[in-house]
Amino acid sequence: MAENTLKVNIPFQSLLEAIPSLGISEKHKLWELLEAELFPDDEDSPEDLAEIQVARADYKAGDYTTFDQYLAQRSNRST
């Protein structure tokens, strides 16, 4: 059975303006779609996928260091 498709031209600016209105799960789906489009030949190993999931879970839980925090820690070590 043939798949019905519809191609629509949406201005890029309109897409950018629509992103903030998306829910977090929709943004994750968009992120995954963009990754697949940008890096179609990248095959992640199961270990890589597991590390990515752990990193995303840590980020969601707030377990991360901002760049500013990193720079502050780094400058404190050198003084």
Characterise the protein shown here.
The protein has 79 residues and is an all-alpha fold. It has 2 domains: 31 residues; 36 residues, no CATH class. Helix content is 62%, strand content 0%. It has 4 helices and no strands. The chain starts with 11 loop residues before the first helix and ends with a helix. 0% of the residues are buried. The mean pLDDT is 88.
Give descriptors for this structure.
79 residues; mainly alpha; 4 helices; 62% helix; extended
Question: Which structural class best describes the helix and strand composition?
Answer: mainly alpha
Oligomer: single chain
Query: What low-confidence regions span 5 or more consecutive residues with pLDDT below 50?
Result: none
Count up the domains: 2
Outline = extended
Strand content bin:
under 5%
Q: How many extended strands?
A: 0
- Write down the overall mean pLDDT: 88
Terminal residue distance:
69 Å
SSE sequence, one letter per element? HHHH
Helix content: 55-70%
Number of discrete helical segments: 4
Biggest sheet character: none
Radius of gyration: 19 Å
